[in-house]
Specification:
Layout lengths: L25 H17 L1 H20 L6 H32 L1
Length: 102
Amino acid sequence: MTGFPPPNPGQPQQPGFGQVPQQKSSNATTSLVLGIVSILCCGLLAGIPAIYFASQAEKEFALNPALGGQGNAKAGKILGIIGSVLSVLGFIVYFLILGASA
């Protein structure tokens, strides 16, 4: 005996009590973290891997639809694309200014 009485049939069970937590994709979380880092400081160095890990997570979701983290993968992919584009634009502007001053 566990010492806890069973819940009443008409009473809703507390969320998380006796339920198995949903698994989340580690590739999706990695993509989100790299996407944020690509926006903040690393640009292409983190943006391209963020896009790659998001694509890998999407393949995992196709094989296992019950896997959680779809929002993380989508956000990581979008942030990776934005960080990469901003990085490329920054390089273009930098070299245009550098080329104009030389």
